[in-house]
Amino acid sequence: MYNSTLPPFNLTQRWAENSSANSSTCDKNDGFKYPLYSTVFSIVFVVGLITNVVAIYIFTCSLKLRNETTTYMMNLVVSDLLFVFTLPLRVFYFINQNWPFGGMLCKVSVSLFYTNMYGSILFLTCISVDRFLAIVYPFRSRALRTKRNAKIVCVAVWVLVLSGSLPTGFMLQTTSPHYNKTNAMFCFENFSSKQWKSHLSKMVIFIETVGFVIPLLLNVFCSIMVLQTLRQPHTISRGGKLNKTKILRMIIVHLFIFCFCFIPYNVNLVFYALVRTKTLKGCFVESVVRTIYPIALCIAVSNCCFDPIIYYFTSETIQNSIKRKSQVNRSYEVKFSEALQSETTTNLQSSLRNLKAKVFPNESSV
């Protein structure tokens, strides 16, 4: 799970050696994770905060269209920002290797990590499925692709994600000075081996299946189906000709970000759980898993910075749809104005003829 293995090496070496929960004959080689985490999380905080605040401004002020796609993207922004706001606390902890903010805030921070991770995966999947329905089944999906249904799906995603993230986060206990024989308090990294065997291994199976494997298969399937549809020469949209190049670019970026951010962490998480439950044994395997884990975690956290790229491409497609609809509306307005003007002129000429006939009734006989 979230770096849930060992207390800081340079502060608690004696405690780790005396603790039966963390005893091991293998040398730990993941001390590099603390400067790595503090550096990467600082960058993600700055970039993620700026880009997601800009995304909120665009969605609420600049992007006039409100549809099911923007509903999913707004929920994804909220998921990213909730996690981004906790990053300064994590940076402080990994620099000082001490958690002075209390046990409750530690649990909430851990829960928000899983909320962001699997919330992002599921909301990105919702966007992919929505695009699949819009392009492959544009007419039959009209009744299904509504803002009301999108809101229902978002509520279901939040319930599902929180039902997995909150229990995981609140199982974590901050280590007190009484046990570690130092003045440091630890967070994010003291799940015991007993917790892994009894609870966390089952939780990993659940979140990997529901939160990663199924969404990954859906994203790949939807992308393939959309690409096959775009290859057909008769592909059209309701608003006019599809810009296949832009849609193709949007799908490639979406799939690349999804795979780049989430596959390394979730694949390594399976092996990490096997190591922590002693299913996989051997110092070499443990060393490889512990080395890869911090790197994969930093890549996963960077999804907060990459999500706005998906917003850009998706919003660009929405804006093009708005332009096509606006052009159609303007053409109808011009035709209506011309017809109204013609009708008004005809009515005016008829009225003048009637008035003239009444004023000069004998004019025609002169």
Structure description:
It contains 11 helices and no strands. By secondary structure, it is mainly α. It has one domain: Up-down Bundle (Rhopdopsin 7-helix transmembrane proteins), CATH 1.20.1070. The longest helix is centred in the last third of the chain and has 57 residues. The N terminus is likely disordered.
In short:
The protein has one domain (13-320): Rhodopsin 7-helix transmembrane proteins (Rhopdopsin 7-helix transmembrane proteins). Helices cover 74% and strands 0% of the residues. It has helices at residues 13-18, 33-62, 68-84, 87-96, 103-136, 147-170, 177-180, 193-230, 244-276, 283-301, 303-359.
